User: Which sequence fits this backbone?
């Protein structure tokens, strides 16, 4: 293992191209949307290990050549390289990101972020592009509907940035970072998807002070019974700069005003919000 740690910096410089040594924040600024927290970075490795372990062996061999180690050792060494520092969990673990050789992601494909997620095939023209350093985000309360699939968050637009998705019950949208600036006013538009004939109601929260909850004054941004719903919000001057979480709830029959816990039917989507 000592050999791996000693080579780490040179290896990352030599193997990966420019993506590899940037932080998640700089990647977001460059428009690269595969942005993971520390916990998700660890989950990314475990998902790949569970679903595509051959890819980790292949990567190890690209770094070290065809040395006489068994596959389990190669995977363990690569895990240490990305997730540990001197034998302890790294303060900011790194995670592998995938795309085409020209650093594009035309299929909008992202590897898993938790080993419990189901496996899916890596697009055949994709490869490991590099390792990105994860970032901090508070841990937030869980929220999810009892019934998914009747009403869901479909299109979310903040200013000129839009994200579209299907129905997921609870979805952590790690592959989208909305960027806002303090004291600026943004138009928002929220559009639900339906399997039933009933309009959605909406809640949107932003943890402006980054204390890990959505319950401070001014953190409930939208509370409407329209669909689609649109309006404006202004990012307060006192918002803390950096990354925080934005939570959206689309619900049947009013949902709940509590950003935590369960409610009858609809969807929760969590986004990362970058506040400048
Ligand atoms: Ca959705
Ligand atoms: Ca808060």
Assistant:
């Amino acid at each position: 293992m000592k050999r791996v740690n000693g080579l780490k910096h040179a290896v990352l410089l030599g193997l990966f191209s420019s993506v590899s040594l940037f932080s998640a924040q700089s990647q977001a600024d460059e428009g690269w949307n595969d942005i993971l927290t520390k916990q998700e970075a660890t989950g990314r490795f475990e998902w790949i290990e569970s679903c595509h372990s051959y890819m980790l062996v292949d990567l190890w061999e690209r770094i070290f050549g065809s040395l006489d180690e068994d596959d389990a050792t190669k995977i363990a060494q690569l895990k240490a390289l990305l997730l540990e520092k001197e034998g302890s969990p790294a303060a900011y673990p790194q995670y592998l990101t995938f795309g085409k050789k020209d650093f594009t992601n035309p299929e909008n494909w992202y590897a898993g972020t938790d080993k419990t997620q189901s496996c899916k095939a890596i697009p055949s023209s994709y490869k490991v592009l590099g390792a990105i350093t994860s970032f901090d985000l508070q841990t937030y309360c869980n929220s999810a509907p009892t019934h998914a699939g009747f009403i869901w968050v479909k299109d979310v637009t903040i200013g000129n940035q839009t994200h579209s998705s299907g129905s997921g019950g609870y979805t952590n949208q790690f592959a989208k970072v909305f960027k806002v600036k303090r004291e600026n006013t943004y138009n928002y538009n929220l559009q639900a998807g339906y399997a039933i004939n009933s309009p959605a109601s909406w809640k949107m929260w932003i943890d402006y002070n980054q204390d890990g909850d959505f319950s401070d004054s001014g953190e409930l941004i939208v509370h409407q019974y329209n669909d689609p719903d649109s309006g404006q919000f202004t990012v307060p001057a006192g918002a803390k700069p950096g990354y925080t979480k934005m939570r959206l709830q689309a619900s049947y029959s009013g949902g709940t005003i509590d950003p935590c816990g369960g409610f009858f039917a609809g969807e929760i989507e969590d986004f990362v919000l970058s506040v400048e």
